[in-house]
Structures are given as structure tokens and as C-alpha cells.
Specification:
Pfam family, one: Aldedh
Shape: globular
Strand content: 15-25%
Radius of gyration: 24 Å
CATH superfamily of the largest domain: Aldehyde Dehydrogenase, Chain A, domain 2
Order of helices and strands: EEEEEHHHHEEHEHHEEHEHEEHEEHE
Protein name: ALDH-like protein
Largest sheet: 7 strands, mixed
Distance between the termini: 66 Å
Strand order of the largest sheet: 9-10-11-8-7-13-14
Number of domains: 2
GO molecular function, one term: succinate-semialdehyde dehydrogenase (NAD+) activity
CATH architecture of the largest domain: 3-Layer(aba) Sandwich
Keywords: Oxidoreductase
InterPro entries: Ald_DH/histidinol_DH (IPR016161), Ald_DH_C (IPR016163), Ald_DH_N (IPR016162), Aldehyde_DH_dom (IPR015590), Aldehyde_DH_Superfamily (IPR050740)
Length: 375
């Protein structure tokens, strides 16, 4: 259904106002697994976007009057459909993005859990009845939905991981940096390690990467060849300016043009593109510091801040450090890739604003309205 040449490619339409809509323009969706056009996707114009917004605004007039139970059931039905069609959806994800089947299924399972968690919280939204200064007056604070909202996920972010001596931190770094080819918004980009443990940490990191992502096994598949070239350019720029490639060969030829094996680069400086540019691929930089203050400065030296990780045997020290890192989340003794329904998710600085997940996630969609009345 999804494989074929451009002449036979199916065009995926938009869904606007309850109907399929085929725009005037479309573009090829090329599978990184085959290098062939899987299908074509509609390319939206400004008028198409306006039509979608207007349709949503019109539907909101009816939707806002539905009961919490009705909205809950809609959410639960959506979660059920994701579960029922998980096999088909996983195949589409793998074909379109190069995701492994376990990673695709994990994402679908998590999506269902997030939707069910949100459904369970819908009826918990409530207002308040505050006491007013005038005894003959009363007030009600209502909660009502904002309406149509444009939400953009924080794809391009910067994610430092700061390490002190601790077993298994190298494995967590390897997974955090290279899971799904490093194409996760929470993927590790910087690894910061104290100079006293740099040699043994680096040795164990290389061993962990080679064990988890063996050189004789399949290489990570990126979204397209352009992503591979982007990572190669970042590494080439760093190497030309004095950085050391600790692990990997960006010039290696793989079986697919969209494949690239993990790369670890050391001695990266602010003069290099890699220092401040997210690779969104299987590339990570290793930085050495002498003090905790230097580690904190390096971790915060970015315009982005979605998630970070700290590895330490002293929990109090880790908590103190976590409070100083300017990011939306800090995971102590765990990798940067961590998300679940009970935890608010979102970033700081240029990683955006707003949160989803948990009770605070629903707060992003509602506003207060104050109503007063005389007795």
C-alpha cells in the first residue's frame, strides 16, 4: 500500500471539516529504507491552513458544549483505535522514518497511555467560589477552553548530560544519544565529564556504544539522506577546527544512503558548529571539565533547554545541581530520553513554552473567567 514509484504513489489528503481535502500541490515522501517514493503528501497553502482553522473554530462552538463524559469517551476511542491499528501504524512509521519496529510500537503504546491519562483527567477540571470583600456579593471563577490552539512540538533542542563517577552511566549515555538514530527531541547532544574520570569514562562509553550498537550490526537509519549529510558536515567542521573523533567514521559507506553509525566527538569548542547546533542524528560531543561550576556553565550555555541528565552517587548533590540547570526536566541517574503521562513535559528558553502530560498539561488548554453577582 505504501511502496511504489512516483507514478503510482498515493496522495495523502488533508482532513478538514470532517472531509478529505486534496490540495493543489503535493510532495514526495521518500522511505529511508528503500530510497523510493512511498506516497505523496499534500502541501498546504496559506488558504488551506486558514480553512482548517476556520473549520476548527466552527466546530468548537458545538464541541465546547459537550459534557466531560462525552469528551472522555472520544479520547478513549482514539486510544483504542491506536491500539487496534498499532501494527499498521508501526509499519507506516518504520517505512516513513526508518524507525525500528520495537521503537515504533513503543511510541504507539505511549501515545495511547498519554491519551487515556488525559481522558481520566477531563472531569477533574473545576472552578472555584472565592470569598469576596463585600458580604452581599459572591464570585465564581469558571474554567473554560481557549478554543482553537496551534501547538508545535520542540523538535530542535539542546540536551546536555553531566556525569560524575557512577556505574552504568556510559550505557545510559549511549542509549540517550543514539536511540532511534538520535532523532528524538530528548536525545543527548552534550556529555560533560570530570577530567579525573575522563579516560575511563571514555573507554567505557565507547565499549557501551559498540555493545548496544555493534559495528557488525545494522546501522541506524535516519529520516533521509539530508540528515546524514547534516551530521557529516557537523563532524567535518569540528574535526577541521581541532576536535577529535573518538568513535565512528562519517565517511563510511553503508548499505543505505540514509544510514549513519554512532559518532562521538571530543574536544569540541564554541567555535565549532556542533557546539550549539543540534545534530538530530547519531552524533554526540564529549566535554571535559575541572569543576562543578564549569559543568553547570557548559550545560547552560545554550539557547535551548528541554531535558538534561545528571549522574552522581550523591543524591543531594544531584538535586542541587538539577535546580541550577536551565531545562524543562532533569533526570538524576537516568538518561535524557524519559517521558510518561504523570510527568509534565516541556522546555525552557528557545525550546518553547507550555507543558503537556499530567494535570498541568490540561491547564494549558483552559482559561479562567470571573463572574460576580449581588445577592
Amino acid at each position: 500500500m505504501f511502496l511504489g514509484d512516483a507514478k503510482e504513489a498515493h496522495v495523502v489528503p488533508f482532513f478538514i471539516n470532517g472531509k478529505d481535502y486534496h490540495p493543489e500541490r503535493s510532495f514526495d515522501v521518500v522511505s529511508p529504507l528503500t530510497g523510493k517514493v512511498s506516497y505523496r503528501c499534500g502541501a498546504a497553502s496559506v488558504s488551506d491552513a486558514a480553512a482548517a482553522v476556520n473549520a476548527a473554530a466552527a466546530a468548537f462552538k458545538t464541541w465546547r458544549k459537550t459534557t466531560p463524559a462525552y469528551r472522555r469517551d472520544v479520547f478513549l476511542k482514539a486510544a483504542d483505535l491506536i491500539q487496534q491499528k498499532s501494527g499498521e501504524l508501526a509499519d507506516i512509521m518504520a517505512n516513513e522514518t526508518g524507525a525500528t519496529l520495537p521503537w515504533a510500537l513503543f511510541n504507539l503504546k505511549t501515545a495511547g497511555e498519554l491519551i487515556r491519562d488525559a481522558a481520566s483527567r477531563i472531569s477533574a477540571i473545576e472552578g472555584s467560589f472565592p470569598s469576596l470583600a463585600d458580604p452581599s456579593s459572591s464570585g465564581i471563577v469558571l474554567r473554560e477552553p481557549y478554543g482553537v490552539v496551534l501547538s508545535i512540538a520542540p523538535w530542535y533542542v539542546f540536551l546536555p548530560t553531566t556525569h560524575h563517577p557512577m556505574q552504568n552511566s556510559q550505557g545510559q549515555c549511549a542509549i540517550g544519544a543514539f536511540l532511534h538514530g538520535g532523532q528524538i527531541c530528548m536525545s543527548t547532544e552534550k556529555i560533560i565529564v570530570h577530567s579525573k574520570v575522563r579516560p575511563q569514562f571514555q573507554e567505557k562509553l565507547v565499549a557501551a556504544v559498540n555493545e548496544i550498537f555493534p559495528p557488525d550490526g545494522p546501522a541506524p537509519v535516519l529520516i533521509n539522506e539530508a540528515a546524514v549529510q547534516r551530521n557529516r558536515a557537523l563532524v567535518a567542521d569540528a574535526a577541521a577546527k581541532g576536535a577529535a573523533v573518538i568513535l565512528g567514521d562519517v565517511h563510511a559507506t553503508e548499505s543505505r544512503a540514509a544510514e549513519l553509525r554512532p559518532v562521538v566527538v571530543g574536544d569540541v569548542t564554541p567555535a565549532m558548529d556542533m557546539y550549539a547546533t543540534e545534530s538530530f542524528g547519531p552524533t554526540v560531543s564529549l566535554h571535559e571539565v575541572e569543576t562543578e561550576a564549569q559543568a553547570l556553565q557548559l550545560a547552560n550555555d545554550s539557547e535551548y533547554g528541554l531535558t538534561a541528565a545528571v549522574f552522581t552517587e550523591d543524591l543531594r548533590r544531584g538535586l542541587r545541581f538539577a535546580r541550577e540547570i536551565d531545562s524543562g526536566a532533569v533526570h538524576i541517574n537516568g538518561m535524557t530520553v524519559h517521558d510518561e503521562p504523570a510527568l509534565p513535559h516541556g522546555g525552557t528558553k528557545s525550546s518553547g513554552f507550555g507543558r503537556f502530560n499530567a494535570a498541568i498539561g490540561l491547564e494549558e488548554w483552559v482559561r479562567t473567567k470571573t463572574v460576580t453577582f449581588k445577592h
